[in-house]
Each structure stands twice: as structure tokens, then as C-alpha cells.
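Slides due. Your pick:
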Amino acid sequence: MLEIDTDDNVYPPSDDSLLLVKAADKARGEVLDLCAGTGIIGINAAKYAQKVTFAEINPIALKLIEHNARINNLSNIEIVRSDLFSELGERKFDVIFVNPPYLPGTMNSTDFLDLATIGGEKGNETTIKIIKDLSKHLKEGGEAFIVVSTASDLDEVFNTINSLNMKYEIVDSKSYFFEELKLIRIYR
């Protein structure tokens, strides 16, 4: 794993991030690191990809991604301030990595750590929104790797994937006494 600096106003690399980093070697072609945080996933994917686009809403995180890319001597990157896919237009990617906010709760929209962790009242609303937009942003033969948690309704997430005529597989997981994190691969 490459060097990553952190900031108190940016979601730090945690067990969910590290679960997703394990899939970084699946990167190829044009890659998107959505909900990028510190950039840990995209920075690790950059050694396999032609280009990595980091999309993040937190302006402090954007500066941190730029810093982390610089200390790792990366030049095949682009950094975009975006609320999920909003500023990416019709762009398509070969691989999309996402560590979305997935905890249930009520968020304070001005607190960047809330935005990074709370996925809606049920916890899966942001994840479902991302999944519904995947087909618009994945190239033919593309795939997405997304972290999900049993802290939210995973059946609803999996049913959404199936309803969009996409497929998924659980490629890794990590259990805790309060939840299980799963890394899922979504493809057509």
C-alpha cells in the first residue's frame, strides 16, 4: 500500500477502505474513485490504471487527494469536486470503486464526516442511488466494486441490482460484532 496522509475533516482510511483497497489490482483503463475521501483506493489503483478520476464533494478531501497523489508521484490522475456522479456528465469508466456512506441516521449536511458516513435514514439510500446510476457510467464490460454493510438493508440493495439487469457477487467481507462489511462486484 502507498503512503496516505489524513486530515480530521476527511473520513480516514478504515476497515471499509482497506477492504476496497484489496480490489485495487482489478483497476484497468479509466478508473473512477467515487466518494474518494483521502484517495486511498484510487491512489492504490493508479499503478494498474491508465487514468484515475477522483470524485469527492468535500473540498478539504480534494486538497488531501492532491497532496496524497503528489507524495506518491502520481501523474495519471484527475480530481473533480462532485456530489456522486453529478459533475461527471456522460463519462464512462472501465472500473468504478465506491466506499459510499452506508450507516443509517440523520445527517447534518454541513458536516463532511456525516456526509462520508451516513447513507440516509435506512443507511442504503446513497448506495442505491449510486447503483441506479452505474449503468450510465460503466463502459461495456465495466465493473464496479462497492462496500456495503449489514447495518442497512442489503436485500434492498441486491434487489435493486437485480432489477437493473445487472449481476453481483460478494468478493470479500469482514465481520465485526455489530456489522459485517461486504465488498461486492457489480457487472452486466
